[in-house]
Amino acid sequence: MNEVYEYLKSIGTYYLATSEGDQPRVRPFGTIDIFEGKLYIQTGNVKNVFAQMKKNPKIEICAVGKDNTWIRVTATAVQDDRVEARQHMLDEYPNLKSMYAADDGNCEVLYLKNATATVYSFTEKPKTIKF
């Protein structure tokens, strides 16, 4: 899990895929955090992405590394409604504090459960990490 965190954190922007009915939805994300041994993402509950994850929590993350590798993470997104989890994310990303507060009723954090990450390369065999 730490390797996946470091990979995504070093990139800055990754792409999160959800589904809306039979239509895939993909958008850029930039938050990634480890809290209490779990990998977390953050969004607002007024956004379509949050409604999509509530309805179908199966997600995928994809990103390209600076070394021309790429990663795909398949997981179930689980909402964590604790203020402590939200505050930890906001402390990791102080720039978000202009848009969110841990107790604002909008900030949401979700951890990745039953996750499988695979790092791909044009020159090496894929590496799989489960957490």
UniProtKB/TrEMBL annotation:
Residue ranges annotated for the Pyridoxamine 5'-phosphate oxidase N-terminal domain, each copy included: 3-90
- Protein name stated in the entry: Pyridoxamine 5'-phosphate oxidase family protein
SUPFAM superfamilies linked = FMN-binding split barrel
Q: Which InterPro entries match?
A: Pyridox_Oxase_N (IPR011576), Split_barrel_FMN-bd (IPR012349)
